[in-house]
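Two proteins follow. First one:
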Amino acid sequence: MLFSSIPFLYYFLPIVLLIYFITPGKLKNSVLLISSLVFYGWGEPRYVFLMMATILIGYVFGLLVERFRKKASAKVLTALSAVLFLGVLGYFKYANFFIENINRLTGFSMPFLNVVMPIGISFYTFQLLSYIIDVYRGDVKAQKNPINLGAYIALFPQLIAGPIVRYRDIEIALRERVHTIDKTAEGIRRLIIGLSKKVIIANTMGEMCTAFTSSGDKSVGFAWLFAICYSLQIYFDFSGYSDMAIGLGKILGFDFMENFNYPFISKSVTEFWRRWHISLGSWFRDYVYIPLGGNRVGRMRHIVNIFTVWLLTGFWHGAEWNFVIWGLFFAVLLTVEKFFLLKYLKGVAGHIYVILVTLISFAIFSAESLEGAMGIVGEMFAFGRMPLVSEAFIYNVASYLPVIILAVVASTPLGSILYAGLKEKRGFGTAVDILEIPVLLTLLLLVTAYLASGSFNPFLYFRF
């Protein structure tokens, strides 16, 4: 079930919120767990039992690791839990990838497994791993109530696409949380803004991308237009979903971390990755990069640590070689920046550099395979072997230019700066508060009309 769908917005969510708010405080987590399992089972009924089993195993491991935390067996239990959870993730997400590549290398004809990747497994696996590791480190106490732990893992606002919420960040809120009108209002505002980003901007950019992939009238300009629109699509798709998750969390009394912070205004790739998918970057930093030694080691070891993290980051996103190349592409850029280039990246030059490399990277990311990625990047740089422009390019520029301009402006903090400035300006604050309600209602009506028409409405991160 998508957040950006009529069944979720007008059936599932109102019913869940009604039941949730009339339920006594001690039973609210039970409501969250049950509703989250229903939400997940709506599209993945057979994998609900896998999730329940995963939660139960994580619960037991948490208790055992805490019990033996000062003994060597705690490290063994933590390692065993990591092997188990990553093994399940590997089976569903990567088994056929390895079979395919073994067949290519050896000439064998091993049959593919009849498995389908459960939605959200990459996200809730990382949440469980961080929980067990934090218990082992003594950063949190093991959760004694399986309902509370289940509510944390299965919490529907962030279940299928993050942000990756760490147990220690909502440990207190799982026991007791405060619901206020102001927090609920802020949650509704973030929800509608996220919906608008996803439906109005990301979906429209997605239509243009589909026009490119299905067109037989390719050109260099069309390929770059695709890279621009795909980069904007994935940004507004995922950041919009994160906004919706954060908004729903606030309505339910939780404060999830911000997952995006205007990454396209960055002056370096290093800065870009501090602003893009923040929860994933911080997860790899705290549970992979720093344990490997981070930057507190020699230069060669430091480079190995960077490449290890980005190899894993790329592979986390998908079981195809183009994701591995995408991760290594950023590993190279970040290494060069770290040891040479970063001090020179300033002002407009830095912005142009970041935009160019991110457009190339998302062209690689967009493909279904390594061959597809090479094809798209090849079209972007096919000067002399391909026309610079084509009729399809001119037609799509004319058709989508207003939304592209809107998306580019919305990907900067300009709107937030103007909003904050008007709120603080004497005589304007009250007017902004009053006008905000009809603006949000208008956006909700537009989104509803778009969804009711059955228009293009994919969600890119379901792939991962």
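Second one, unrelated to the first:
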Amino acid sequence: MDWKEVYFIGIGGIGMSAIARYYKRKGLKVSGYDKTPSDLTRALEEEGIDVHYTDDESYVPADKEHTLVVYTPAIPHDMGELRYVTDNGYKVIKRSAILGEITRGQECLAIAGTHGKTSTSTLTAHIIEASGLGCSAFLGGISKNYNSNLLVGQRPVVVVEADEFDRSFLQLRPSVAVITAMDPDHLDIYGDLDSYQQAFRDFAALVSGSVIIKEGLPIDGSHIKAKILTYSLESPSADFHASDIRIDNTGHYIYNLVWNGGVIANVKVGTPGRFNAENSVAAAAICLCHGLDAEKIKEGIASFQGVVRRLDIHVNEPSVAYIDDYAHHPQELASAIRSIRDIFPGRKLTAVFQPHLYTRTRDFAQGFAQALSGADKVILLDIYPAREEPIPGVSSQIIFDKITAPEKLLIKKEQLMEQLEKEDLDILVTFGAGNIDRFIVPITDMIKRKYQPDNK
């Protein structure tokens, strides 16, 4: 079909906005709806994409014959605009399906996993881009190197963050793929751990060339036609692993990358922390399978600046530091806290956490509490509901009661700035996938005013 316009319902989502930008770059007219303004929607508007924030069918393009409507499954089924386009003959397609269509006919390099996929896919895209070969990329975060979640290259090579939510990644047909983790998540969609992990096995079965799995994940060779390889930061039995691992005084890892083609010596990871080092091994593995030059891979890992809201350091002074991170799963929290301890050993760590979704809180309350207990002080906020209605008996309290950190506090989001003003901060980190990111600028400004009074 010869589409002239693409209309997005839920355009402000990180995955949706990348596709919107893609079609805008292709010369189509792009517009859409989102529930609330954000930095991302404002960026889209600055790029010439019309965005509105009221559920109003009059904004839907009238030319249904030449308008493609893309929606995210996070939108309620009874949303007015979605009902309107469905009932009136528009071509309506889920985000996951359109991403599958865009990547058809290209060499697709896909990164999946409960966590680690955004950082790993963004690093993979950067390595290929920085090598001079270039690629297209649809990312689940904003790359600091490119200030975007989209790259558009000239070669038919596309790097994709393969999202398991709503089984979206089963629309892809990768030539090479990485699976970083299979810890349970989205149980509101999958029901149980077995079904969740089976989806990753089904994803692996769609890969045609090589599938690179973090060593120890429950995937065997049955029903998988691709070559199975493994990676690990430290295990020498993995096909791709690091040796002679060192950490410099800023928390950056340096290692030798060992694989069956030899050794890449003295790889320095451009972003600090253990999990970034492990992700860099995965990214190097997928790039080596893609045929990239080893030295170019080493250079790309070193020049990677990271992803917005992934161990994102906003203040780093001798007396105080402030970090923001998207972690919203127990394993992500535990990994981030461990990395922060690497970067700032022996310092007092205050963690602010906003739980995301009632179902996730219900399913993983014990895991959240255990991970957060790795901090010295925990400030816990109310649940950010996103697409969900409240569940009786489920609140932040069920996490709070299980936290064993030396200090803990349960407050409402509206009380956070007042509370932080009272704190004697050393290392502060904010965690969450909800709207806790709205506090980044106020917290940064407060810290600079309070702890660096001469900083103008």
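SUMMARY FIELD: The chain has three domains: 5-94, 104-303, 312-451. The chain has 14 helices and 21 strands.
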